[in-house]
Write a structure and sequence with these properties.
Layout: H1 2-13, E1 35-38, H2 48-52, E2 58-61, E3 66-69, H3 79-83, E4 89-92, E5 105-108
Antiparallel strand pairs: 1-4, 2-3, 3-5
Amino acid sequence: MPNMLSNILGNIFARPATRAYPAVRRPPFSGARGHIVFDTKSCGFCGACSRRCPSAAIVINRTDKTLTFDPFRCIICEACVEVCPRKSIAVDSQYRAPAYVKTVEVHTLPAPPEEAPRAAG
């Protein structure tokens, strides 16, 4: 009984063991693997990342210039980041938000800006 009383008093006056998440968020650790980010402006759609991906989370369509990414298949091994010749793929240290529906990301090559018609003169 005396041992239990000291334990109870220690727990009453101690700080909480957990954070008040989501009000207090812990910063990510150095080297944390959060999620994969694509830069389609610099991507050449060569397909090196899709050939190297062990979980087949990346599918490249070279004719349509689309990159399809399934984040729920991705194991964040960073193999695609290492093999990308143009460094169009990066790893963000922030984790993805939880999702209720499994979605697939489709990245396309951005259309070039249209030029304004010139006035004949």
